[in-house]
Amino acid sequence: MAQCFDFKQIGVIRTPYIDSAPYQPVTDDEGEFRIVLSPEYAEGLADLDTFRYIYVLYFADRLRRKAVMTERPAWTPDTTVGLFASRSPARPNPIGLSVVEIKKVAGNEVLTSGLDVFDNTPLLDIKPYIKDLDSKNDANYGWIDNLPGNKQHLLLHIMGIPHDY
Amino acid sequence: MAQCFDFKQIGVIRTPYIDSAPYQPVTDDEGEFRIVLSPEYAEGLADLDTFRYIYVLYFADRLRRKAVMTERPAWTPDTTVGLFASRSPARPNPIGLSVVEIKKVAGNEVLTSGLDVFDNTPLLDIKPYIKDLDSKNDANYGWIDNLPGNKQHLLLHIMGIPHDY
Q1: How far is B133 from chain A (nearest CA, A)?
Q2: What confidence tens digit (pLDDT) does each residue in B61-98 have?
Q3: Cβ B95–A134 below 8 Å, yes or no?
Q4: A57 assigned to some structural domain
């Protein structure tokens, strides 16, 4: 069954995160978040600014550990869950996926809301996030629902947002 | 800048679509939709059934044409949009992304709602779809909003759902 596929870098994601990054996008984080496409793909950004949100797919190239099938999420280290029930970047294929808001499209660049990746992360794809197709109002929190504690507080941990309580 | 990455098949998606497939997931479509993981990854499915929705990432291996930077979506051929503002599978990296509902997880298999891929499509990743992180209530339809006609009707076309009107 096992086949391999060659994927290529089509651009780079610039963020303020040099040495550490949050676990999930932080909308109100400080700093600039910029997707820079290789010039040969710039024309493909036409009409993208008609969307409010996009999917950004990238290669998690800073990963130093191998994928294991059970994960202990960094924000809840006493919990063990299956890898595919987690958003850990240490996966058989380290493809990262984030939903971010578009702020501006100009030339071969897209300015976005907070992106949870290290500076200079290789870009694999951008897709429009389309209402109804992608926004599921009856989505749930899965196993996160079973954790003790306040859900809003837990979400701060999931997203890696610094907070004082 | 250009780097290449090796991704590997971690399973296979079984669907009723042998010769044609809808453009987007069809929830109420007939037939069985089954993700079969290679046995070495089965343990990673633990706790996945606590989620209602998942992201399925796959390699669009049936693609016969090369990516071009402007697309005319099959369901609205008079409209031309930038490739990254479309969900066309003909992209620089043909990584497909679908949001589907979990029906059952058993052993190394996940039964799901309708998946818009051909039978035997190579699986790249499964990620949990987490409320708040992934479900954006204020998402829009982008350029689709500017098309003439009824939105619900257009969505049937986007999703490739057969209809009589």
Answers
A1: 8
A2: 888 789 999 999 877 888 999 999 999 989 999 999 99
A3: no
A4: yes
